Amino acid sequence: MDYDSTSIPTKYRSARGLPAPTMRRWLSAIRRSAPLRPESRVADIGCGTGRFSVGLAEAYSSHVVGLDSSAKMLAEVSRDDRVSYCLGDALALPLRGGSVGMVFLSNVVHHLADLPKAAQGFAHVLGPGGFVVVRNYVREQLQGVPYLEFFPEAHAASVTALSSGREIRDAFRRAEFTLFSYRCIRQPVAASPIEYLSKVQSRVYSDLAEVSADAFEAGVARMTAAVSGGWNRSLREPIALFSFRKSLG
């Protein structure tokens, strides 16, 4: 998706930001998934507005390079002395070989045109024993995403766009990574159905941005009616967290 051709970047931080307790939970899980050596640098690929970049710098007491292909996303970042941001392509990383200890990708892999090629590039910029941590929706867990029951066209778009967990693992295995850890985190996304509806109405989810205006409005109408009628589904979205490790040799 070309985010610069959408209005998503200006709304992303407010609609997709994570409350402090949720962010702390993610950072704790990431640190367990990738126990880095002190002073190892981190590359946050597809960093968007930098919602994880600053947290990773704090969690690892390290310098983070945030890279994104969207100039509009980078215009919305939170500035921090421990984070450097740059415009770039995940398939042609502007980083020296062996210069980082971890590559982090949050909801990025389904936007990569060639994941196996990207994985090879990640291996190049990582030092021996370095990690790639992937936080992403996966195809087989879509039934657990609450808003998608109201948007069949968006569900179909996600089925097409997303990789399965096996496909992600296979792409990194072919680049000679080994799976270090895996877990699924059911992330709270809103405090109430009304708050969740407001988030969905902002249309910052990429699958919602892919459907027609008529399909989107019809889905919003269905969700609004359900919320008004007392819809009471668990407001958590399942997100996979993979950690892959490069050989020490």
Structure characterization notes:
With 249 residues, this protein is of the alpha/beta class. It has a single domain, classed as Vaccinia Virus protein VP39 (Rossmann fold), CATH 3.40.50.150. The protein has helices spanning 8-16, 20-33, 53-60, 71-74, 115-125, 152-161, 165-174, 193-201, 206-210, 213-228, and strands at residues 42-45, 64-68, 83-87, 100-106, 126-136, 177-188, 236-246. It has a seven-stranded mixed sheet, with helices on both faces. α3 links the parallel β1 and β2 (64-68). The longest helix is centred in the C-terminal third of the chain and has 16 residues, at 213-228. The radius of gyration is 18 Å and the shape is globular. The mean pLDDT is 92.
What key phrases describe this protein's structure?
249 residues, alpha/beta, Rossmann fold
* CATH architecture classification name: 3-Layer(aba) Sandwich
User: Which word captures the global form?
Assistant: globular
Overall helicity: 25-40%
CATH homologous superfamily annotation: Vaccinia Virus protein VP39
Q: How many β strands by DSSP? A: 7
Please outline the major beta sheet. Answer: 7 strands, mixed
- The secondary-structure class comes to alpha/beta
Q: What's the CATH class, please?
A: Alpha Beta
Overall mean confidence score, pLDDT: 92
Estimate nothing, just give the exact number of structural domains: 1
Strand sequence of the main sheet, in spatial order? 3-2-1-4-5-7-6
- Which fold name is given in CATH as the topology? Rossmann fold
Radius of gyration: 18 Å
Number of helices: 10
**Low-pLDDT regions:** none
